[in-house]
Specification:
The chain is α+β, with helices and mostly antiparallel strands and about 80 residues long. It has one helix spanning about 45-60, and strands spanning about 20-25, 40-45, 65-70, 75-80. Strand 3 (about 65-70) and strand 4 form a beta hairpin. About 15% of the residues are buried.
């Protein structure tokens, strides 16, 4: 018996469905590890990714992040963008 695939609302999205993500960097350009509540975020579109970093930049800076780089899959879109004024 073959059952249909689970509908998207009942399964975790794949990386292909959430291709947008931020690389978090310190002042020297090295990747920074942050707390679980801020790490590994992925987004369906650029606007969601940019909104997230706009909402969380203070928390990211407090965790030692100096700059962020936006990626769509493996393609670098822009950055590094400083989190400091």
């Amino acid at each position: 018996m073959n059952l249909p695939d689970q509908p998207p609302t009942f399964r975790q999205p794949t990386p292909a469905e959430l291709p947008w993500w931020w690389r978090l960097e310190d002042a020297s350009g090295q990747e920074v590890s942050v707390g679980a509540d801020l790490s590994g975020e992925r987004f369906a579109n650029r606007a969601d990714a940019e909104s997230w970093v706009g909402e969380c930049f203070g928390d990211l800076a407090a965790e030692g992040v100096d700059a962020v780089v936006l990626f769509e899959g493996e393609r670098r879109v822009y950055g590094p963008m400083s989190l400091h004024p």
